[in-house]
Amino acid sequence: MKLVIADSHEGLKAAAAKVLKATWQRCKVHFLRNALAHAGKGQRQMVLAMINTVFAQESLEAATAQWRVVADQLRSKFPKLAAMLDRSEADVLAFMSFPRRTTSRSTPPIRSSGSTPRSSGARTS
């Protein structure tokens, strides 16, 4: 295991590094929830669209540059959000330091704690 994706819990971060010898990355979903809480309801789609431009980048260098552009564009209207972006850049973009994985036509199983692996296309009854 090389990458652990979890929420921003200090114990999980420490365990990932010490026990698993893995890189920790902040969960994108939890990050986005926290980030969007700094914007009003009418502004959240725009903020989400801006942040998502970071994840569309092909390289860590491009994503880092875009992250800074987005933070700077949000800074005057959403200073707390911009500060959060400044603090969390490395935590959220950790996955981009790994080689890009090529995917096959099949969907890998989804694994979460307390559940059995299942295909993301599988239906549950």
The poorly predicted ranges are: none
Intertermini distance: 32 Å
Order of strands in the sheet with the most strands? 1-2
Radius of gyration, in angstroms, nearest whole number? 16 Å
Briefly note the structural class of the backbone.
mainly alpha
**Mean of residue pLDDT values:** 75
Number of helical segments with 4 or more residues: 5
Helix content: 40-55%
Biggest sheet character:
2 strands, parallel
Coarse morphology: globular
Instruction: Indicate the proportion of strand residues.
Output: 5-15%
- Please count the beta strands (DSSP E, at least 2 residues each): 4
The run of helices and strands is: EHEHHHHEE
Describe the 3D structure:
With 125 residues, the protein is mainly α. Helices cover 47% and strands 10% of the residues. The protein has helices spanning 10-18, 28-36, 44-55, 60-74, 79-92, and strands at residues 3-6, 23-26, 109-110, 118-119. Strands 1-2 form a two-stranded parallel sheet. Strands 3-4 form a two-stranded antiparallel sheet. Helix 2 (28-36) runs antiparallel to helix 5, helix 3 (44-55) packs antiparallel against helix 4 and helix 4 (60-74) runs antiparallel to helix 5. The longest helix is centred in the middle third of the chain and has 15 residues, at 60-74. The two termini are 32 Å apart.
Topology:
Layout: E1 3-6, H1 10-18, E2 23-26, H2 28-36, H3 44-55, H4 60-74, H5 79-92, E3 109-110, E4 118-119
